[in-house]
Amino acid sequence: MSDEIEAYIHAHIDEEGPGLAGLRREAYVRLLRPRMVAGHLQGRLLKMLCRLMRPRRVLEIGTYTAYATLCMAEGLEENALIHTVEINDEMEPFVRAALEQSPDSHKVRVHWGDVREILPSLGETFDMVYIDADKREYCEYYELVFPYVRTGGLILADNTLWSGKVIENNPPSDRHTQGIQDFNRKIKEDPRVEKVILPLRDGLTMIYKKK
Questions:
Q1: Alpha carbon of 122 to those of 31, 69, 109: distances in Å?
Q2: Cβ(73)–Cβ(17) under 8 Å?
Q3: Which of 21, 31, 82, 134 is disulfide-compatible with 58, CB 3.0–4.6 A?
Q4: Which ranges of the chain have pLDDT less than 50?
Q5: What does the pLDDT look like over 24-40, one tens digit per residue?
């Protein structure tokens, strides 16, 4: 997508609002990898999906700046809740500041640590899961969360086109690309789900758990 088309899209969809715009700017000023922020278009899509699905419980693996977290929280009803898990506790001050400035922070519970240890302790079944963490672990995350997703629930996986590297010949040392390629094959071959990859930003896979 060209910069001009992306700008046109941004100009003709809902605005992200001053809070999220400020959060995105802060990420570009203060963080080393600001491109990891979901961004305006993907954020509006995440909000819309929450509007449509009306999930009561959402799990996010990989909080980072909490931009995507707060986009989903915008679309949730008042009695709904996002459990978001981030392993990098150095992000805690940034995330805490973002939540303090958001009117939707009461819909968010942040957990610091390894999702493999945290998830079983939550005692929840999820209507929607958003995976945006270590690409080398996508297959493991998928199998980890699958039993906790209700039938008819939705799993979203970000970065599944990985800057186009998924169709290139990559060195064996590139474990991140290998992780995404393995994940895409795994989802393609899984008869328990329906799936589609959206060529949005870096690729977003939507996975429906069959009834």
A1: 30, 18, 11
A2: no
A3: 82
A4: none
A5: 999 889 887 887 888 89
